[in-house]
Every structure is written in C-alpha cells, then in structure tokens.
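User: My advisor asked me to double-check a structure prediction for Lysophospholipid acyltransferase family protein before group meeting. I don't want to rely on an old file, so could you generate it fresh from this sequence?
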Amino acid sequence: MIIKGLSRIGVFFLYLLSLLPFWLLYIISDVLYIILYYIIGYRRAVVDENLSNSFPEKTAEERKVIAKKYYRYLGDLIMETFKMLSISKEESRRRFSPAKPDTDQRVRDHLAQDRTVLVAAGHYGNWELSALSCSMITDKDRIVVYKPLADEVFDDMFKKMRSRFGGTPVAMKDTLRKLATLRGKPSLTVLVSDQTPVRETVQYFTQFLNQPTAIFLGIEKLANAMNAVVGFWDVRCVKRGYYTYEFVVLTTEPKQLAEYEITNMHVAYLEQMIKAEPQYWLWSHKRWKFKPEHV
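Assistant: Sure, here is a fresh prediction for Lysophospholipid acyltransferase family protein from the sequence you gave:
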C-alpha cells in the first residue's frame, strides 16, 4: 500500500509537470541531458556497446557524437512523454503532422474496405506521440498494443495516456484475441516492432544493425491471421518538438508472401531509418540480451 501511495503521488506530480509549456520543459530537458550523460552516465556502457556493435565502420569519435545527440534527445523524449498526460488534440496534431496531404486518407481508404490495418513502429522518435497521432486518423476501432509495466499505478497512467484520443490499449499477449473480436470490421492497430522477446519464446533471428537479433513474429502472425494490410510508421524529427509521419505500405496481401518476409521487411525499414538519423532510436535499451547460440 505504501508503494502504491508513493506511485500515486508520483503520477500526480508528473501530471502537474505536464501542464508546463513546452519551452520550459525543454529547459528542464537540457538540464536532464547533463545529468544523464555527464553526471550519472545513465546506461552509458549499454549505449556505447550498442553503437559499437551497430556501427563498427564508424570511428569512436563519430559514435561519441551520436551518443551525445541521443542523450540530448532522450531528455526531450522524457519531457514530451510527460506532456502527453495533458496535451490537447490540436497541439498534438500541430507537433506530429502527416508528411504528405494524403497520408491519413490512404489509411482511411484501407479501412473503408473493411480491412484490418497493422502499423509497425519502432522505438524511434516519440513513439508514444506516434500512437496518439494514429488514434486521431479515424473513428474506427483503434488498438494500441503495449507491454504492461510492473507498477500497477504507472501502468494505469500509461493506459489512460494512450487512450486519450480514442485508442484502446491492449496488452501484447491479448492482441490476437482482441483482433479476433473485430474480424470483419475495419480496425487500426499500432505495434512497436523492436521489442526484445523473452528467451523462451524466441522463434526467429534476423540481421539487424550488423548483428543477429531476436525478433517478435507477432506482426507477421497477426497479418496472416487477419489478412491485414501491413504498413510502417515512418517518423521524422523536423525540428525540436516537431515531427512528421508517413504510412508506408509493406503489403496488402500478407498470405502471398513467404515465411518471415513481412518480419524482414519491417525490420529492414526500421534499420534504414536508424542509419539515416541514429540519435532518435532507443540506444539505452538492452536490445541484444542473447544471441542465437544462447537460445
């Protein structure tokens, strides 16, 4: 009960923090960068190892530049995520806008055909704001797949945050069951594709950022089960606090593709984005916990 009470206090203060204007949040972010990178060195060893393995062709100095840019962005990401507790639809739309005039309409066109649309995204840019932007595209069923947090209070906070604009948060393990209830109806589902599977559940490794990487097959399995349109959510940071997104169709006929082809496509697309602007990916995540020989 004490821990839950402290968590509730923490959530209350985070909501108060979210009421601050963006310009003030970014001042806090600048301070946070100094703390994370220079003072406590938050997961510096993890970031350095991930960058070294992913970009062996770069010099140590080049990787250090990427790391610094990443920690700067990490501060922004943290502040922007808190801001989502109270951000308005109008402000969200202004800061996270479609890259092309017809982007949203192309998604709605697939839904108009009573198709299930699966959107693969990465831990790239502000993925939480990405999920909110997806929720504003349509009034059809919108599913936001998430990995539950251990802390019940904070988990509830994130579920409420992700559902503010009409999305329905669904735990990863319940996704197929939820989509089965929507069979024959148009629905839009957002899934973060670069989570690390539990060792016991690993079924497939692919080459990602210069190393064998365990990949969830969930998107591919869901696509085949629902005969879904599969797309990738291409996010670009155009300037501090402002993003664009593009819905890139990977396939409209998943059952015609070979095994693992969908998986390889969304992995390759994310890799391409990361290589173009690496500072916006989540380098402090322990993505490579084990290798094929350990499974």
